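EI: anyone free to look at a 303-residue chain?
SC: sure, send it
EI:
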Amino acid sequence: MTRDYRRFLRPEELSRISRLEVRARSVVEGFLSGMHRSPYFGQSVEFAQHREYVAGDDTRHIDWKVWSKTDKYYIKQFEEETNLRTWLLVDLSESMLFGSGAMTKYEYGCTVAAALSYLLLRQQDSVGMVSFDDDIRQIVPSRSKQNHLHSLLAAMDAKDPKEKTDIHNVLATVAEKESRKGMVVLISDLFVDRESLFHGLKMLRHRGHDVMIFHIMDDEELDFSYSGTTKFEGMEEMDDLVCDPRALREGYVEAVNEFMDEIRGYCARTMVDYQTIRTSEHLDAALAHYLNHRIGMRQSVRN
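SC: here you go
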């Protein structure tokens, strides 16, 4: 039976978030159309330089004269007033299937991605998406047209989450393929190897990208309020476990806090925006708090 991918973008949520604006904290390539002259490059009237062609570039801007001399593809670049270019990285690994409330982490994460896509496209910014588990499962090229939202939503609902997460491969691929500076938004429960995560984030920041992380967690993963003998089913190749959760709660909560503090600390040191979101939170409230926080931080940097 075909599922309705539009469940990720409910009308009642759209009505509450439609007044928000997604703003980059620092001046990156493509910050909101018409607000300033880009310090980087686009395709306008004043030629600036060449750069090597990468998959997804508009072939109309290939310099064929250069190709005839070098047998290599180069794109003509021009200074312009340019829009924000954003890549959404959506975790579809098996651990994202967990959910103790109305929505699983996978469903909530896709809803976050859908809402951000809607806001960015409404601002005439371009949005691309990478869905992944142990490998990149699908890449939706970056576009700025309103009807592009259909492609983004459909890609999120292509298959059920499965397998483990190879976060380093995903972040490295985006860093290598995306030569233009822009915004990269990672939506995940971050149940990954932390050294691989940090190395991947470092590559993105080194390339000049503005990086945001939405750390999606279920209430029970944070509070661990289970009682009585409970069987926990293993995900991502972990074994099942039968235990008394009350005997484990103190150590579990301490370990989770250490895990989150380590990630939060690294992000603070490397200028990566980090936000934990519980799946029980109303999406509009979570986004309003986070995006307004980014606007305030950007204004502080400018002052």
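EI: The chain has two domains: 5-30+83-302, 46-79.
SC: 👍
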